[in-house]
Design brief:
single chain; 90 residues; mainly alpha; 5 helices; 74% helix; 0% strand; globular
Length: 90
């Protein structure tokens, strides 16, 4: 039987990226893992993930949650570093 940790380890996303997708989309972690794993394999999907993470960071900043916003910006930067320069604006 596969555990959640196994599924995260088999994915092409970090746990923090999956958590950011879940937070942004207001969906369970496993659903975010499935969606993220599907999106990360196309340029359009990678762009969407980058926008999601950056938008969530901006929303946190606007609502005064600066510590979480900084964390999400680091997650975004790590995502960009792993998958190359991704245009983060629609």
């Amino acid at each position: 039987m596969l555990t959640l940790r196994d599924c995260i380890d088999f994915s092409d996303l970090s746990e923090e990226e999956i958590l950011a997708i879940a937070e942004c989309e207001h969906i369970p972690l496993l659903t975010a893992l499935e969606e993220g794993e599907s999106m990360v394999h196309t340029p359009r999907g990678r762009k969407r993930i980058a926008i999601m993470i950056k938008s969530q960071a901006e929303m946190c900043e606007r609502t005064g949650n600066t510590v979480h916003a900084q964390h999400l910006r680091r997650v975004h930067d790590a995502f960009i570093n792993r998958f190359g320069k991704v245009v983060t604006r629609p």
